[in-house]
Amino acid sequence: MAPNRTNFSNFTDELRARLSIVDVVGKRVPLTKKGDRYWGCCPFHNEKTPSFTVVEDKGFYKCFGCGEGGDIISFTMKLNNMDFRAAIEELANMAGMKLPDYKPRDPNVVKREEELFNICDAAAQTFQEKLFTPDGAAALEYVRRRGFTDDMIKKYRIGYAPKNNIIANKFAGSKYLVDAGLCRRGDFGLYDFFRDRLMFPLFNANGKIVAFSGRSLDGSEPKYKNTTDTDVFHKRRTVFGLNFARDAIHRANRSIVVEGQIDAIKMQTNGFGETVAPLGTALTDEHIATLCKLNRNITFCFDGDGAGQKAAARACGIMMPFLRDTSDVKFAFVSGGKDPDEILEKNGADAMKKIIDDAVPLVDFLWELANKNFVVATPGGKLQAEKFLDAELDKIADPELKKFYKQEYDKRKFQSWQSWKKTKEVVKIDLPDIDAITKNTLIYIVNNFPELAEKYLDFLGTLGIDFDGTAAELNMDLAAAEKFIVSLKLHRYLDKLNLQKRELTNRWLETGDATISDEINAINTEIEKYTEKLEVLLSI
């Protein structure tokens, strides 16, 4: 008896969400992108002029020559002459998913999922109503101060979870409060998981509310508190704002990824409807896979601070396996400690557009990462940077695209890394106590013994010397050169200790603080120790 395909409805939905039809078809049919579609010669009949089209965001293919059409499952069945179960198994292996037991879905499970959707929707309605009561006055004032209009609040169903157990009390008869992540069970019964938080409902692809993200209003941590995973919500797969952004992503031919949901909402309502966000900063490969199904052109827009730079570097690493020759991936940064919300509020949409338009292409961003994270002015640093680039490029699935990147970076390495140069950032340090003779000697050592330059790079970088200059020839071998650097390092350290000792002595004389005397004795011990080391070095 033929299997009933509805038995795998949940699993097949997950397959379609996890796998891009362009990737599945593209493994067997060379495709070329024209507009928002991909075209190729039909694999099901002989033709010379392509009439076979694939639409990625809709997840289907269609041949206008022979009439064949369908999704990834029907394509795999037809092309490989497989039955439904075999096609599902092949696609599951491709997606790295375990094939579920082949049995009908339990009607009770289906009913339970519907109940979870219903209770989440009812909770969202309660939270939104509460926002416009005296209890929610502070939350409403906050959200309006952030530039949210009543229409925006209504569209995104923003609400407020009060300090009491409103959900646990109002829906006490529901069996699904804990399963939906809305309540916890304590010693005295159920209590609300979200309390005194601005509430952002989280929607699935079909526009149903499946979870919540609650933002603290008093500065307490965590800043955002999200529903834990449930049967209908998985944080690693949920992209905030995607249900609102789908059509805009299609029209704009790209998606913009920002760090938080407030940024995403403000971007969407200020002309950047294609903007989405992960929950928190935990961008995952499943988020990227979901976005790539809609469009492989992605601009990541993060804060320009250290955390934003790290998030961008992580996003770059996750993005590499999803790159295709049709991808246009870029990185934009909002500088000055600001975020997109603040830029839009103070400078307007034009300023934000300029930031997006000036985004750095991935090929350049990855190159900047290599140069920023490794000291490419030294042989060892160059080797580390090369290993980093090679490891990232090995993630690219398309061999031709990988080859292009390698060739591009080989050209850049030849142009930029062929000679040892100190970075100009270091020479900004101005320490005038390096006399001309010492400076000349150090320049000679760096130019003739690059291995010492690499070994003592941190120390040499503090001296404020331009090592690109020339120096007179000196009769000095490797051992003498290293002895010179070490002795200079010891001298400077002893000078620093003596300066600290003088400052502490003056403080001790002024205050009479006995603890300062202990610090002075400790420094004296350190001075004796390193003076002895210097004497031993000079005697060799």
List the helices and strands and how they pair.
Elements: H1 9-18, H2 21-26, E1 32-34, E2 37-40, E3 52-55, E4 60-63, E5 69-70, H3 72-80, H4 84-95, H5 107-131, H6 137-145, H7 150-156, E6 159-161, H8 166-170, E7 183-186, E8 189-192, E9 197-203, E10 209-216, E11 224-226, H9 242-252, E12 255-257, H10 261-268, E13 275-276, H11 285-294, E14 297-303, H12 306-319, E15 328-334, H13 340-347, H14 349-357, E16 360-361, H15 362-373, H16 379-393, H17 399-416, H18 436-448, H19 450-455, H20 457-460, H21 478-511, H22 514-539
Parallel strand pairs: 12-13, 12-14, 14-15
Antiparallel strand pairs: 1-2, 2-3, 3-4, 4-5, 6-9, 7-8, 9-10, 10-11, 15-16
Helix pairs in contact: 3-4, 13-14, 15-16, 21-22
What structural class should be given to the helix and strand makeup?
A: alpha+beta
Task: Kindly report the average pLDDT value.
Answer: 85
Distance between the termini: 92 Å
Low-confidence stretches: 1-7, 419-432
| Biggest β-sheet: strands ordered side by side in the sheet | 1-2-3-4-5
Please give the number of β-strands: 16
Radius of gyration equals 31 Å
Number of helices in the DSSP assignment: 22
The general outline is globular
> What is the percentage of strand-forming residues?
5-15%
Helical amount: 40-55%
What does the largest sheet look like? 5 strands, antiparallel
What does this structure look like?
By secondary structure, the protein is an alpha+beta fold. The protein is built from 22 helices and 16 strands. Helix 3 (72-80) crosses helix 4 and helix 21 runs antiparallel to helix 22. The chain starts with 8 loop residues before the first helix and ends with a helix. Mean pLDDT is 85; it is low at 1-7 and 419-432.
